[in-house]
Design goal:
Layout (H helix, E strand, L loop, with lengths): L14 H30 L6 H25 L7 H18 L1 H26 L4 H23 L8 H21 L1
């Protein structure tokens, strides 16, 4: 307790709480991304021409997730309780978009990575130079997410039936998921 009768546990603008929230949401997002790619591969199969690229992107997402898993443990960050939802929702999103077709699967990737690029840019701005380890990882991962987006666009994402609507819905879903995972 402070002299004013308030606890010292947390105050608005608390850097640790903000950083913990970043780690929690990033771990959840990277986990969701691995599930999206698993859903896409479950429908498209390993022999589909897009499978090699999807496997490569999935491996990068797995590396990102492993980094944030370790940070959660090392820094004592509470993970999101929504993990079971991300498991099902991510897989379903990947499977449904792949079932629509490979262009829709790539549209999903492009939409998700567009939002993640914005999300990571906001985090880097907020972090400044306060957490070099986290900032370096986010910058590295952001570059790979942009590669995924660019690959998806080059592979025909914008040719997907109803691309503007599909992309908009997926991007909205990402925004909602990010907001929820920050807090829950």
């Amino acid at each position: 307790m402070t002299g004013t009768g308030q606890t010292d546990a947390w105050r608005p603008g608390d850097a640790k709480r903000a950083t913990d929230s970043m780690i929690r949401v990033d771990q959840a997002g990277e986990y969701g991304a691995t599930r999206i790619y698993a859903g896409q591969l479950a429908v498209l199969g390993d022999r589909h021409p897009a499978a090699r690229a999807i496997h490569h992107m999935a491996a990068q997402e797995e590396r990102h997730r492993a980094f944030f898993d370790k940070m959660i443990v090392d820094r004592g960050v509470r993970p999101t309780v929504l993990q079971p939802l991300w498991n099902v929702a991510g897989f379903a999103l990947g499977a449904v978009t792949a079932a629509i077709g490979p262009d829709a699967a790539m549209a999903c990737t492009a939409a998700v990575e567009t939002e993640i690029d914005k999300h990571y840019a906001e985090q880097l701005d907020a972090l400044g130079d306060s957490d070099p380890e986290l900032s370096a990882a986010i910058a590295d991962f952001q570059a790979e997410e942009l590669e995924h987006r660019d690959h998806a666009l080059a592979a025909g994402a914008e040719n997907a039936f109803g691309y503007p609507v599909l992309s908009g819905l997926i991007r909205l879903g990402c925004k909602v998921a990010i907001a929820a995972a920050k807090r829950i």
